[in-house]
Amino acid sequence: MKRYSEPVPATGPAWVKSSYSGTNNNCVEVAVLPRGGRAVRDSKDPQGPALAFAPGAFDAFIGAVVR
Description:
alpha+beta, single chain, DUF397, DUF397 domain-containing protein, 4-stranded antiparallel sheet, about 70 residues, 1 helix
């Protein structure tokens, strides 16, 4: 697997939580990165690590999960 990274803007990405999350904090949040990639993090640890997906790789990931 090839590593992918993108610079994160100084103001930080806008993280979005699923509408299925409800009011609990056991969620996954997703952000769009400047070059079209996506980042995913655990909402319980917003200062913790995030996974970065290359453009297109996130779509493939979601497509595989939805099947």
